[in-house]
């Protein structure tokens, strides 16, 4: 992912903004585990949107939909 963002930053105009929708855990490294230092990502991304919609633990049924 980091290499992709580097290439994207390189190819886009200097005024282009790059955003990333991420989970609440740090970015995953090559081994799939959360990285300890996200500095390299911070240098390439202008905005991060935190996504945590996967925390609903339960079956999706009409009853759960009706609550919302």
Q: What would your notes on this structure say?
A:
The chain is an alpha+beta fold. It has one domain (2-67). 29% of the residues lie in helices and 12% in strands. The protein has helices at residues 2-11, 39-42, 62-67, and strands spanning 19-22, 47-50. A two-stranded parallel ribbon has the order 1-2. β1 (19-22), α2 and β2 (47-50) form a beta-alpha-beta unit. It is globular. The protein starts with a helix and ends with a helix. The model has no long low-confidence stretch (mean pLDDT 81).
- Calculate Rg over CA atoms: 17 Å
Average residue pLDDT: 81
Beta-strand percent range: 5-15%
Shape: globular
Placed side by side, the strands forming the largest sheet appear as 1-2
Give the gist of this structure.
With 68 residues, this protein is α+β, with helices and mostly antiparallel strands. It is built from three helices and two strands; from the N terminus they run αβαβα.
Topology:
Elements: H1 2-11, E1 19-22, H2 39-42, E2 47-50, H3 62-67
Parallel strand pairs: 1-2
List keywords for this structure.
3 helices, 68 residues, 2 strands, 29% helix, alpha+beta
């Amino acid at each position: 992912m980091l290499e992709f963002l580097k290439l994207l930053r390189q190819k886009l105009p200097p005024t282009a903004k790059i955003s990333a929708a991420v989970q609440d855990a740090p970015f995953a490294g090559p081994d799939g585990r959360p990285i300890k230092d996200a500095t390299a990502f911070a240098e390439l991304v202008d905005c991060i949107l935190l996504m945590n919609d996967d925390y609903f633990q339960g079956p999706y049924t009409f009853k759960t939909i009706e609550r919302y």
